[in-house]
From TrEMBL:
Pfam families per record: Glyco_transf_22
Chain segments carrying region Disordered: 168-191
Membrane topology: Multi-pass membrane protein
Location of this chain's protein in the cell: Endoplasmic reticulum membrane
Pathway(s) per entry: Glycolipid biosynthesis; glycosylphosphatidylinositol-anchor biosynthesis
Signal peptide feature range: 1-20
Family statement drawn from the similarity comment of this UniProt entry: Belongs to the glycosyltransferase 22 family. PIGZ subfamily.
Superkingdom, taxonomy of origin: Eukaryota
Protein name per Swiss-Prot or TrEMBL: Mannosyltransferase
EC class (word): transferase
Lineage of origin: Eukaryota, Metazoa, Echinodermata, Eleutherozoa, Echinozoa
InterPro entries: GPI_mannosylTrfase (IPR005599)
Location (main, coarse): endoplasmic reticulum
Naturally occurring in which organism (per UniProt): Stichopus japonicus
Length: 388
């Protein structure tokens, strides 16, 4: 039953890519990933944000190139071979498909971590796969969605290398010679000048309150009191239930807690410490703490599932609500509107040059690559001017 449910949830994850969610969660979904890559690969008129300022680069193009970059190159190759026609829908679907494929690495990590720590792998996978974090956020081109997979991989590496300490009864195989090979660099070779450390620039930027004032300043407890409950309320309640049980000494003797289980204490710290550190930055959004949900899923999946592995009612209700709000309703008119404008421009008779003015009011910035307008407007039948 549990495995069949996981397969069904996996199918839903892919189906929601090919029938794209109209919800527009945040501009970063587009402007930190597919928007600049569409300009580079297709030559579209796009808006490049401050993160990609070459004089003070604060964001690496590595992960955007792996997701949207490769997706757009495949799309361009298929188009040049006359196998398909590029449309706004395909510009949306291909990068999201890449993100969903990347999210499978997190499933792999959760399964293996839960097996190593003697948790129930089926329950952990079902809670992860049924979370709206996965069904909505991890199918979008957010850098935070990539961070979820990276954090899960780091956890797996640590748990695998420290299995004896975390699970004393486990008999792990002795491994010899696991140290990484060293490569010597001869003098005078491989010297690099003008290194740009995008993480350092990112931290410097985000520690300056003046820089963040345009993005929004939040109380430094926002992650703990607003964002985490919004992402995974049932798991978050379970975490504090265990914290209070340990503090007041009311935990059940038959059930391991943070004080009696090394693995639970380790995962508890893997949840709490990163959230505490990232709370230093005064600009706080829910997606910033998505990776920290992984330890909660490992710790409390059994608390939000029935014995057969099926999620309980509070978990289902909370995640259906999240899917509805963020996947289907939030700023949901923007993407269909851009597709409509693109269709209107395509149908414009070539003999009638027209200048179109489109004004977006009280909305997020429209991702311009979905309009598929070329940078070079010379000789084109129509011009498009966007104002927000």
């Amino acid at each position: 039953m549990a495995f069949k449910l996981y397969c069904l949830l996996l199918l839903v994850r892919f189906l929601w890519v090919f029938q794209p969610q109209p919800g527009y969660i945040h501009p970063d979904e587009f402007f930190q990933n597919p928007e600049p890559l569409a300009g580079d690969i297709f030559g579209y008129d796009v808006h490049r944000t401050w993160e990609f300022n070459k004089t003070q680069l604060t964001r690496s193009v590595f992960f955007p190139s792996l997701t949207s970059g490769i997706s757009f190159l495949v799309l361009k190759t298929l188009s040049e071979a006359d196998l398909l026609t590029i449309t706004p829908a395909l510009l949306l679907i291909f990068p999201r498909l890449a993100m969903v494929l990347c999210s499978l690495s997190t499933d792999f990590c959760i399964y293996n971590i839960s097996k190593l720590l003697k948790f129930n792998p089926e329950k952990c996978l079902n809670i992860f796969a049924s979370s709206y974090i996965v069904l909505v956020f991890c199918s979008r081109t957010f850098s935070n969605s990539i961070e979820v997979g990276v954090y899960a991989l780091i956890l797996l590496m640590v748990v695998d290398s420290r299995q004896k300490q975390l699970v004393p009864q486990a008999q792990s195989k002795k491994e010899k010679g696991r140290s990484l090979p060293r490569r010597r660099n001869p003098k005078g070779r491989g010297k690099v000048k003008n290194i740009t450390l995008t993480p350092l620039n990112f931290i410097k930027y985000n520690l300056d309150v003046d820089n963040l004032s345009s993005h929004g300043i939040h109380p430094q407890v926002t992650h703990f009191f607003v964002n985490l409950p919004m992402l995974c309320l049932p798991l978050y309640v379970s975490f504090f239930t265990e914290v209070f049980a340990v503090y007041f000494g009311k935990g059940k003797a038959s059930r391991p807690t943070f004080t009696s289980s090394t693995s639970r204490a380790f995962l508890g710290l893997c949840f709490f410490t990163p959230v505490l550190l990232i709370s230093i930055f005064p600009h706080q959004e829910a997606r910033f703490v998505m990776p920290a949900v992984i330890p909660l899923i490992l710790l409390y999946s059994e608390f939000v599932t029935f014995p057969n592995g099926f999620p309980n009612v509070p978990w289902i209700a909370w995640n259906l609500l999240g899917c509805l709000i963020f996947g289907l309703l939030h700023q949901a008119g923007m993407i269909p509107c851009l597709a409509h404008i693109n269709g209107m421009l395509v149908k414009q008779p070539s003999a009638e040059p027209v200048s179109h003015h489109v004004v977006f009011f009280h909305t997020y910035m429209p991702p311009r690559h979905l309009l598929m307008r070329s940078l070079n407007l010379k000789g084109r039948a129509s011009e498009l001017h966007i104002q927000t």
